[in-house]
Every structure is written in C-alpha cells, then in structure tokens.
Amino acid sequence: MLDFRFRFLFALTIVASSPGLSHAATFEELFRTGAELYRAGEYARAARAFAESAAQRPASGTLQNLGNAEWRSGRTGAAVLAWEQALWLSPFNPPARLNLRFARKAAQIEAPDLTWYEVVSTWLPANWWAWFAGATFWLGIATGSLPGILRRPRTVWHQAVAALAFMLFLLSVPAYVGVHTRSASGFILQKDTPLRLTPTAEAQAITRLAAGEPGRSVRRRGGYLLIRTHRTLGWVQLDQFGLICGNVAGL
Amino acid sequence: MNQALIFKRAVLRGRQPILPFLLCLVLFPAPVGRAQPAIAPAQDPLMSMMLSQPRIDLTSPVMPTVAFDPPVIAPGQQSIYRVTFNALEATIEWPGKIPAPAELNLEPGAHGEILRLGPAGFEPLSAFNTRVQASAPGDFTVPEFTVNVYGKPVTVAAARLVVRPSSAAPLQAPLRLLLELPATNLYVGQPIRARAILPGAPGGIVQGLAQVQLSGEGFLVDLGGARQRFEMAARNGTRSATYVYEATLTPMATGKVRVFAQGFTTAGFSSGPISILGNVPTPIGTPRYTLLESDPIELKVRPLPDEAEMAGFTGAIGRLSIGPPKLATNVVRVGDAVELTVAVTNRGDGPLARIVPPPAPRVRDWQVFKGTDVGLPQPTNPGPGDTQQGVTIFTYNLIPLSEQSQTTPAIPFSYFDPARSAYVDLTIPPVPVTVNPGSTPSESLALVQAVPAPEGEKDSRLSGLAPFPGRTVRSLVPAQQRPWFLLVQLLPAAAFIGLCLWDRRRRYLEQHPDVLRRRRARRALRRNWRTAREAAHARDASGFAAAAVNAMRVACAPHYPAEPRALVGSDVLALIPHTGGSGSPDQLVRRFFAVTDASQFATVVPDATELLALQPDLERVLQQLEARL
Predict the structure, then answer these.
(1) Is the CB of A138 less than 8 angstroms away from the CB of B492?
(2) pLDDT at B269
C-alpha cells in the first residue's frame, strides 16, 4: 500500500512539473506579451511584462524594450537605468545607445563620468572581461610552464603564445578593474529625489536630484545608500537608486 | 516806475543791494506766476479694471444644498447626487468617500465653480456631482456629513433617493448633457470635434450652458476654436431646441482615456458669443445654475507607429493635400533670398489642428530657412453639414549658393492618415528656377555651407522595439563578483599546483631509484607472502615452498641490486642475521631453497610437506626481510 502511494505521488510530481501544465509564463512569453501591449499603447503593463521577463532572464533586447516602455510611461529614471543595463550586457546595441542619448538630451540629464579604464570596459559586455582575463592568464601560465613539466621541447611558438597571452591579460586588467568600479554606478529612479545629509528620514536635504541622474554607491546603512554624484555626496533611500548591476543587497 | 527807480538807486549805491530788493518784493509784489497745477498720477489700467469689478462675496455663511437629480429612479437607472455650496471650490475639502448605504453604487462625477452676480457682488457657487445607481428597489438615504469649507465644518444635510420598480408609473426624465464624439478609436495627436449637447424639452425653452468643460485626463481641448449655438434638432422623432457646444479635443496619452462633458445650466444666459439658428424659443428669466454632466466616453488611443514613419513628419494627423509651391520669382541671383510658399489644405472630416511645417532641409547648393506659417480663419458659423476645413500656408526663404542649381530643393513632409493607419508622403516638390551669378563671393558661401550639420535626426526620437530578447544571462552581477567565479579560477590553479607536485615527485624518484625498487620489492614481497599463505592453507606444499622462496628473493633483490630470479640461498642468507641452531633462519632458508631447487632441477621431486610446519618461522624471516626494505 505504501509502495503504491509512493509511486502515485511520484507520478503526480512528474506530471505536474511537465511544461504543458506549468502556469508560470516563460521569459519569452512575457517578452512577446510586453511587445503586444506596447504596440497597443498600454505602456505601463508592457513595462511590467518586460520587467518580469528581465527578472527571469536578463537580456539586452528585453532591457531595451523595458526602457522604451518606461520612457513612454513617463518614468525617466527607470528608462535610463534599463537602457544602461542593456548596454552593460551588450555594448553592441545601437538602439539602446541612441535612446540614452535622446533621453539625456530630452530630459537634460548628464551621462555618468567614466574614467579611462571604465571607458575601456564598455567596449565589451561586462562578463567578457573577467573570462578573457582568466583565460589569457592561464593560457600564458600553461604555455609557459607545461612543456617543461611534461618534458616536451619548448618551441618558439610556446613562448610566443605565452607572451601574447600575458600581454592580452595585462591589457585586459584595466577593463577588468573598470567593470568592478562601474558595477557600483547607478541612477536616480524618481524625480526630485532628496539627497540627504544623514541616513534618516528627517535629515536635511542637501539637494534634489532629477530622475536619471547618475551616481556611485559608496556604502549602505539600513535602508539608505551613500552615493556620490557630480555635485556632492549624500544618502538616498534604497528604492530611489537603481544600481546598474541590480545588486543593492550585496553591498 | 517807482520800483525800478528804488532798485536802481539801491544797486548804484551798492551798499545793501539785497535789502532794497526784498523791500521791493514786499511793497510791490510782482505778479506771482501761477504754479503748475498738480497732475494726478496716472492709475494703472489693470488696477482700475480690478477695482471696478464687483467684489466676490466670501463672508456670507455657507449654506450647502443637496438633492438627488432625479429623486426617483428605477433600478439600474442613474441619478446624480448633487451638493452645491456658496463658496469657492478651492476652499472646499470634498471627501474622497461619501457615507452612503451599501446598496448604492457611488462614483465621483463632475465638479465645478461659477460666479453668480448677486446684490452683494459675485457669489461663488461650487457644485459636486456623484453618480449613483441602485441595484434593487427601496428608499435610500445618504446621511448628513461634514465638509470643511474655509477651514470651518459645514454640515451637508441628508438626502433621500427612492428606487421604484420599473413597472411602476413612468419616472421623470432627468436633464442630462450628451457628449458626442465622431470616433473613439484614435491615435495620439489626432484631433476630433467633440460636441456637448443639451436638448430642450419638445416645444419648451432651451437652457444654455456656462463654464462648459470636457473633463478627464490625457487630452487637450482647444478652447480657442470652441463654438456654441442654439439650433432646432430632431431627437427621438421630435424636434426641439438644442444647445450645442463644440470644441476640438486632441488625445495626448495612449491607452484608455475617459472624457465627459460638464457645464452649468444658465436659463437665459451663456458665456461667449452664441449663434441662434432657426426659430428657437430663447430662454429668459433669472439664471439657475445646475451642474450637469454627461456619461463618460472611453477613448482607445493608440500610439503612432514608429516603424514606418516617413521623413518630414511633424505630427500632422488627418487628410491633407498641398497646392503647387509658388516662388516669389523664378529668376534669382546667387546669395539673394527668394520666398517659397505652399498651401496645405485639410481634406479630412476632422478639424484643422495646428500643423507644424517640416524642418528646412540641408542641401549642398541651397540655404533654406523656415518662414512663418499663416493660417486662414475657420468658418465661424458652420452649418450642420460643414466639414471643418482650413488652409495653412508654409513659407520658406531660400538662398541659392551656386549658379548650377536649376530647381529648388524638395522639402520632405508627411502626415499620418488614421483612416489608412499609414503615413502619407506629401513632400513639397522642387520648383524650376534660374540662378544667375551673384555679387557674393563663392568662398564666403562655401564657409557658410561648411557649418557642421547638427546631430542626426536619429537622436531626436525613440527607437523601435527590439524584435528578440537576445543572449540571456543569469544575473546582471558581473561574473568576477560571483562566488563560483573564484572557484572556477581556482580549478586551473589547483591543476597546475598538482602538476608541479607531480613533476617534483617524479624528479625525486629519478634521483633516488632505490626508493622505487624498495617500493616494488615490498609489493612483490606482500604478493608472494599472500600466495604462500594461501598455498599453506590449501596444503599445497610445493606451491608454498615456491612462493616462500620467491618472497625471499624479491625482498633481497633491492639490496644488491639484482633481478630477484638471479638470487640464490646464500644471497638471502647474507641479509639474514645468523643465530645458529636447527631452528635458525639459516636452516629454514637452506631447506626452502633446497626443496625448490630440487623440484626444478632434480629428477625426483622431494616431498615438501614438512615445510608446511615451518610456516611460523618463515613468517618471522619474511618480517625481518620486510623490515630491511
């Protein structure tokens, strides 16, 4: 009897988890739904659908469309953040880059100030630099030391490959560092966000920030984030600042 | 004469010329010139106008009136719960939720303010409407509640609504405003003509409307083109006098947009010029202000498609046509300006909204500047069948930069036709022109033309949607900040360290070969030892003896070093400590070797059974040999 019950429950679990009976929409279905809603003019609902799709599986196209829907809904900060995240994933996305330029021109907001190594890090997707640095480093180590370990004659091309690999590794280090520093950047989500002197609700507001204005997170305390903007340093609430890598809790 | 003589003598004497002068003034005062009359300061005309207006009565006690309109309805029919205050609307804190019985379904309606001229000046009148429906018959009372007006609490009295079954006696038809729209499926920016209609009773006096508004969010109303009129119109089979208010409505937000009309009834009065068409009994008497509203209409507003937008689109929606472009003159000189005009006519049913001329094109041989556009006035008294057509003139000033030009540049222009849901090209065509050399040097014209073009048009609008999501990732956090990335990088490190350790061990073993020999010898010794035990257990004496001898040979081989098979008994004896006696290891080794040698080389195989009893001694010998490895 127990054996029959176990087999029945096991079969039920297999059937219930089959794709045909799953009720949760996939990220592709949400993407298509969002596109249909956008074309019908329902921008707020389209933005929600694109956001859910991006939450499941972030992709550059999804984030670009999310930015478009947020812009049409009047949420400038969320639109700028979404486009920046699209470029974070894939710098080879000209529409997202043009949209950012258009939005910054229309809303009169500045682009983030990037150091030279951060600019280099924008040439390729963020994850590529880490893998590239790791691969070239270990390739250099391997081609330089493995022939000796395996008692193979060390040829010229071994040394050339090792030298080339180390050179590429050294060249990728600035971009690797740039990705790391750029991951702390973010954008103000709501308009007229007060930048406070201390991380409290009653703290004096140093200035007010426009939606889409860039900043760098420095540290977190409770429900507040210390950010550095073009003008000054101050505290904002967590839900008022969107990080480009979407990881506020990790700070 | 006397004055002059006295003064002359005083001056000639020169002693105190001033004293005689003053004396003269006192005795013979000269006729004093009249001072200029004081000019009153000019009064500010705006202030004068403000002061001449009757004052607004803000001090009278606030007396709200409340009523259901109509007070008796059938289930499912709508009534308006109307509360009117003699106070400014901005000072009334109207509650978000009105206390009402649960059977009544309340929905906020129109609210507005009007000024009524009374004996003490202007009396503000503010009305708040709430749409009420009941699902079942009965008597319902909205209880009294308090509203803050001018910061003080004011009580709104209770009001009663009777809901009678539909089969009861016919109910009074309420006075309602009607809103008519030619279409409800629109595009953003598509103007339509909205009509707010107040029908009068058949044969009765029609009331006008004041403060007419189209209320809602997401659209603009062009009040400049609003018109109102009284006319006789057929409705429900009967002709009656009807008040009509028309205005142009342009949706600006996409999605669902709700709009309704509201206005204060004014029996006998209306604001603004009004036309009377036909034999209409016009109202007379003192104005009674009641805030009426229409049922809301929901518009479905779609965005203009981005994908097929044409060059020169500046937001014009409808059906347009352009006339032939006209140049002020067809013969020009290089550097001289010539004016180009083109008439754009509205051919559609919708009103002519403000059309923005297309931007001036940047071409190599011409400089083009946008002039001012002139729109001809709309017809002021259109009949019921008139379409709202109009003409707008686009003007451009063109300066030829080269005498090689033979035509003016084409100016891209397009509009969106909502009927076809497509953009239509209406590019202003080039006009033949003769360009003669001018006095302006061509180098300066080249410098003018060298001004960098502005950033492309692609910066000026949003891109379309991406057709596919693209390559997906697990998270936006960069790989280097995720814990597993560090582990992945440690894997090759661990492999490399392992390889280095392995190579080091190999070099050590190469430099110390006896280590390997001894290790192999220990393995072989254990293997043969195990075989000897198994043979002894199986009472296989010859096998036992052979395994024992092999074990002794492999245990001694590394010490020489030599191949184990090449060793004999004396070689083994050399490594075993000598103790003498019959039970000594020497005897044991000799006996085992003798038996195995005899079994190999002798013609008669000796009996090795007695060797089985020597197993304990053999174990001791083998232990000694193992200890030496």
Answers:
(1) yes
(2) 46
